[in-house]
Amino acid sequence: MPPTLDLSLALRQHFGFPAFRSGQEAALGHVLAGRDTLVVMPTGAGKSLIYQLAALLLSGTALVISPLVALMKDQIDGLTRRNIAATFINSSLDTAEQARRLRAVADGQYRIVLVAPERLRSRPFREAIGRISLSLLAVDEAHCLSQWGHDFRPDYLHIAESRRELKAPVTLALTATATPRVQDDIIHLLGLPHAERLITGFNRPNLTLEVFSAPDVKAKLNLVRDFLAQAEGAGIIYTGTRRDAEEVAEFIRDVCGLEARYYHGALDAAARAETQETFMAGDLPLIVATNAFGMGIDRPDVRFVLHYTVPGTLEAYYQEAGRAGRDGLPARAVLLYSSRDTSLHEFFIENDSPSADELRAAHSFASGPVKEFALEELERATGLPQTKARVALEQLEAAHALRRAPDEAYGVLRVEALPLSDSVLQKIAAQVAGRREHKRHQLKIMVDYAETNTCRRRALLDHFGDTGTAEAPLCCDNCLTRLDAASSSLRRAESQSERAALIVLDTIAHLKWEVGKGKLAKILKGSTEQEMALYKQARNYAKFAVLRLYEIESLVGQLIDAGHIKQVGSRLPTLKLTPKGESALQARAAIRVDLRPVAQGAAQKLQAQKEAGGTVALSGQMLARGLTPEQIAAERGLTVYTIYSHLARLITDGQVSINAVVAADLQKQIRAAIEAIGSVEQLSPIKMRLPESIDYGVIRCVANAWQVEQGQSPPTPTRTSTGEDRAARVHALGESGDIDVAPELITALADADGNVRRLAASALGKLRTVAAVEPLLALIEREPGPQVRQYAIKALGTIGDERARTTLIKISNDPTEMEYNRLSAQTALKSLRIASAPLSHLMPIPEATRSGITQPPNLLPPDPVSAFLARPHPRPLKGPWLAGWALDFNSRFSGAEHSRSEVGELVYLYKYRGERHLA
Question: Average of pLDDT values for 624-635?
Fold first, then answer.
């Protein structure tokens, strides 16, 4: 670098900035002096300016490698507006335009050329770039080189070879998220043994780091609503799946009343570009996206980044959170933490770790001359899911067991298989296993960050090897909680309910073993169950003997909601005090809780139910007042199907006329279908003869009326007082084969008697109803009894729904599980099929079963979040529509809509209902 060169003047002349940011001038000095350099700067610190200004101050062309294909045009447009000769070459350009730009590159017309790493495999590009003088090779997002980073991309491994072919120009590697191990890997893989390292530190003092506990979807949506109600400015919400992105955006628009759009990789290029441009222009305040959105996004006024789902690594989290507050003004990085989120990442980790046999199968498929194929073909030929197939090809390529040429067409791979010995194969498999364990370790670090009670900023800096200060005006929720407790005079607990709250906190603090909500309630209740004998000496055992279990669990739930307790762990969440809870316990502070949460508004509803003669009778009384079944459901906070079930029973008892429930024209249609079938034992054959708009609840009402007219007596559930009686009924329901009893069996999964729960799980397996999948998974999550768990595991295997895979994998690999449960899980895994969609007999899941708490029904009107979750959320499904197999809609919420095409219904009846005459 010439000693007279004024870098600050060059900065003002070319870019109009008055001064450099921290680290920029030093990094620029290294590059201009001809020294290879690794730069690690926080997101938004201005890394791109280093290579842009260096390119203008050096003679020749700077080649910039970046994975951000979608943002290349924006970056080049920005340089062009500053009269800087720059271009990009990527797959978004047609062949003629690519050829024109290649000629211009070969002629030396550009100071900056921006390409993706896979372009280095293109012979025409290598020939064009080889004809000019390269001033600089800049590798952006350099952490993509390392398998130990959070975003490994095999195409980056070609950079070192290309660098040697280009006579080793001065190289600048840039990243925002590289641990010391990843930094070493970058330098080694690029072949830069004497590189300068410039690490400006990872602290972003203007970011406030916050974590909120959210055990389920409803809690998350409530937090989103409350947060957005007081948040200011633009924001980004990150979700873990495409579906979450779509549904959270819908929730924000419909419930929060705010403008929001979703963004994910499955959108077409035009839709992604339009949404991104609208957000960047400041015309869209809020975007809900997967991690497909964000790399290179430099909108300065983003005031918050909220993670709806826990990311898989701390590096990914901090990179995404760092997109807030790039203007240096205060901003918030918020994480909604649910221990269940880790299951998604555990599934991804398992699904991108091919075994030695799977690697061999992928290599064999590609053997022979250069082969062109799509991933779908490899999936069909080998049985490997596409994600695992892609990873297998990447690992084989990294080990030089195959060579991949640039894609000739969208989605088509050109692969040449090279020799692969058994020793090399085993080495690759060992590397895959090591990478899998590393990813699990990265996930654990992310979970530790979410669950820690210490300073979150210090945890982040320590992870990245930054020993600098963790000071910030508003550091993190943990620090602010302790600061608030220290500076305020807390009133000491006096009332019975305030002391009860402290007893709960004290019990958690002094237990030798970690327990979940249900077991803690049993300890405080003084349960005499055999499994509780271990806890009889626990502090505060039986202190709440006068309370019912659901009341104790409600008390614990209130303390969770108030932020004094948090749930940690994934498969079986346990309880831990938060900093707020620790401070309250230490100060013996008053915590406002309601020991009898049903005593106010809900009690009034319960009293109304009692005066009416029960929940069924109350529905009848509301019908008599002129309310429709839909209005009754909305007012009571129940599903419409449940209300129709109530009315069907009242019709059987002669207390309600069918004419008050179902219109005459609908009755006529349904009665005609019943007469054609001649029986109402099963409703599916009747449903087949009716329009799709007529649902099962309406059919059941007419069927009951028809039975009464025929002098028949339909079976009705009976309330039994003993576990033995309940067990007998559950067994009988399972043997009946009637899919319409599924709701009662699902409710029985929450029975106080373990034998009843076991038999209910078994019965649901016999019915093969996918409506039982989520309740069975919830049962496994909270159920301590190994035999009950075994029957639930077997039922999931019999049903064969793919949603059970992650849980079954964890059980099969859990050394703390009973051996027979591990074996049952392994057997169940073999039975899983990838369910294309839920079947039409899906029934609403009782609220008590979903929450895992047996308690009186909630008769209060639904809140906006509950109403959102209860309504249909149609989503088109992929499937062979022309063949007529695909289902119509799918949703994971309770208000799902389901229907089958005519062909699909016939196949279902033949395969699952045994109606062989249809063959």
Answer: 85
Cβ 292 vs Cβ 236: under 8 Å: no
The terminus-to-terminus CA distance of the chain in angstroms comes to 83
Give the Cα separation of 698 and 658 in Å (integer): 10
Of the given ranges (337-346, 393-402, 828-837, 842-851), which has the lowest mean pLDDT? 842-851
Q: How many Å apart are CA 310 and CA 288, to the nearest integer?
A: 15
pLDDT above 80: residue 315: yes
Which top CATH class is 601-709?
Answer: mainly alpha
CA distance 914 to 907: 10
Residue 350 CB burial class (10 angstroms; 0-12, 13-18, ≥19): middle
**Pair of tokens at residue 341:** 């989120």
Nearest to 449 by CA among 642, 628, 266, 315: 315
Amino acid in the structure at residue 746 = I
Q: Residue 672, Cβ neighbours under 10 Å: how many?
A: 13
Pick the CATH number of 7-199 from 1.20.1090.10, 3.40.50.300, 3.30.1380.10, 3.40.50.1000: 3.40.50.300
Please state the rounded mean pLDDT for residues 767-785. 83
Which residue ranges make up each domain of the chain? Answer: 7-199, 207-338+452-463, 347-442, 489-598, 601-709, 860-919
The residues facing 331 across adjacent strands are 207
> Could you tell me the pTM of the whole model?
0.65
CA distance 524 to 606: 26
Each residue of 166-204: pLDDT tens digit?
989 999 999 988 889 999 999 999 999 999 999 988 899
Q: Which residue type does 601 have?
A: G
The percentage of residues in the chain with a pLDDT greater than 90, rounded to a whole number, is: 32
Is 475 or 298 the better-scoring residue by pLDDT? 475
Q: Give the CB-side neighbour count of residue 599, counting CA atoms within 13 A.
A: 7
In tens, the pLDDT along 42-72 reads 877 889 999 999 999 999 999 999 987 767 8
Both structure tokens of 803:
């949603």
Which of 293, 114, 328, 88 minimizes the C-alpha distance to 207?
A: 328
* C-alpha angle 136-142-146 in degrees, rounded to nearest 5: 135
Q: Are 272 and 300 in contact (CB under 8 A)?
A: no
> How many Cβ atoms from other residues are within 10 Å of residue 544's Cβ?
22
Structure tokens at 401: 């067991």
Contacting residues for 100 by C-beta, under 8 A, at least 6 apart: none
Q: Which of 762, 809, 752 is nearest to 789 (CA)?
A: 762
**Alpha-helical segments (H) within 464-571:** 477-487, 496-510, 517-525, 549-561
The pLDDT, as a whole number, for residue 671 is 94
DSSP 371: E
Domain 7-199 matches domain 601-709 at the CATH topology level: no
Kindly give, in sequence order, each residue whose CB lies less than 8 Å from that of residue 75, ignoring residues fewer than 6 positions away. Answer: 48, 68, 88, 114, 296
Q: Hey, what are 463's tokens?
A: 């992870």
Specify the CATH number for 489-598; select among 2.40.330.10, 3.10.20.310, 3.40.190.10, 1.10.10.10.
1.10.10.10
CATH tag, 207-338+452-463 = 3.40.50.300
Contact 292, 275 (CB under 8 A): no
Q: 911 vs 435, which has greater pLDDT?
A: 435
pLDDT at 111: 94
> How wide is the angle at C-alpha 787 spanned by C-alphas 785 and 791, nearest 5°?
120
C-alpha–C-alpha distance, residues 176 and 261, integer Å: 27
In this predicted structure, which of 28-42, 300-314, 648-662, 765-779 has the lowest mean pLDDT? 765-779
d(CA 866, CA 271): 31
List residues bridging with 212 in a β-sheet: 336
273 closest CA partner among 72, 46, 49: 72
Q: At the topology level of CATH, where does 347-442 sit?
A: Arc Repressor Mutant, subunit A (1.10.10)
- Radius of gyration of the chain from its Cα atoms, rounded to whole angstroms: 31
Question: Considering the chain, what is the average pLDDT of its residues?
Answer: 82
